[in-house]
Design a protein that fits this description.
Length: about 350
């Protein structure tokens, strides 16, 4: 018999439960879910005999007075524990609990985005379809993955020719790259990032999320963030905030100065992060985030290379309530208009920073 904990788990308890699962994501932390994007946060944790077996954090967008709106599940539910055998019934049970709570009881429109993973996303997508959730394609959810298990020679061969050329140019500058998690590393990264935001006049949802890095550093070891910094003549000129969360590595935030761009520091930083992952973890896949604008798309495609993956990801919808469908249809129209504007802005100028949607 499953016990459902709905909006009753403390933040520390939630993170402790998350740390026992292999398929978690920062979007499922209380840190990312605490009032971000103007939404209310809700959560559901399934337990069996006191042991967490699945869970999901949910962003609620509610229209005042109507009592209707959208329940958005980003990259969840999580269900694959580190210590247990693969049991797809756990996933079915978790999805059924989300439908019961947010669609049938609260009469909301459920949007569920499975966690992108080259090996497990197809399993989850098939289950969602079988359960009657309608899939909707969105290139914004597509993800590039690098095979982080390749040795250095194989990784070099996998790289796109132009990426390999730019890496060689960057390595020739003998940049000093250090990977750490000390407060000084965080501040150095945030300073470079803040200057980049000012210089490029970046303005999009989530642009201020690097402020959460100190909190992400305090998560359990299986989820904590790390910082890679490139130094030139003793000064930090660029950096990457990356992590190993469950069974995937993530490129989360990036920051570069004009000097870093001129010295191809972004290529060198990624090369050092992949070396660190190969030497210090057992993860196979390093997720780079979505395609982004044409320049970022070319960078990520070249890094994923011949042995990497571009995973096409759908989001899934379910709503038996007619009023909620009408209300959320309006919200989707606003979202699509916003996305078109942001796409136009990105294509007018290079953009760097947050890698996840």
């Amino acid at each position: 018999m499953n016990d459902y904990q709905i909006d009753r788990v403390s933040d520390d308890g939630w993170h402790a439960a998350m740390a026992t699962f292999a398929d978690v994501h920062y979007e499922q932390t209380a840190i990312y879910g605490s009032g971000q994007r103007g939404e209310r946060s809700s959560h559901i944790l399934l337990q069996r005999e006191g042991v967490p077996v699945a869970g999901a954090r949910v962003g609620l967008y509610l229209v005042p007075y109507l009592g209707r709106g959208m329940a958005l599940v980003r990259f969840a539910p999580f269900w694959r524990s580190f210590d247990g055998a693969l049991d797809p019934e756990r996933y079915r049970t978790a999805v059924a609990a989300l439908v019961d709570e947010y669609c049938r009881r609260r009469k909301l429109y459920l949007v569920l985005r499975p966690r992108p993973h080259p090996d497990f996303y197809p399993i989850e997508a098939q289950i969602l379809s079988e359960m009657g959730l309608a899939g909707s394609a969105s290139s914004m959810l597509d993800r590039y993955f690098v095979d982080a298990t390749l040795d250095e020679a194989e990784q070099q061969k996998s790289l796109d020719q132009r990426w390999r050329y730019n890496l060689r140019k960057g390595l020739a500058h003998n940049l000093d790259v250090r990977i750490g998690d000390a407060p000084a590393d965080i501040k150095a990264f945030q300073d470079v990032y803040a200057e980049m935001v000012r210089r490029k006049n970046l303005n999009y949802p989530g642009v201020d999320l690097p402020a959460s890095i100190p909190d992400l550093m305090r998560l359990p070891e299986r989820m904590k963030m790390r910082i890679a910094l490139a130094h030139h003549e003793g000064r930090p000129i660029g950096g990457i905030a990356f992590s190993v969360v469950g069974d995937l590595a993530y490129y989360v935030f990036g920051a570069t100065s004009d000097e870093a761009t001129a010295l191809n520091a972004g290529y060198v930083l990624q090369w050092h992060v992949m070396r660190w992952l190969r030497e210090n973890t057992k993860v196979r896949w390093y997720e780079l985030g979505g395609p982004g604008d044409p320049g970022i798309r070319q960078f990520k495609k070249g890094l994923a290379g011949k042995r990497g993956v571009l995973l096409a990801v759908r989001e899934f919808h379910y709503c038996p309530d007619v009023t909620a469908r009408v209300v959320v249809g309006g919200l989707f129209a606003l979202r699509d208009a916003r996305n078109r504007i942001q796409r136009w802005q990105r294509e007018r100028r290079p953009s760097e920073g947050r890698q996840s949607n």
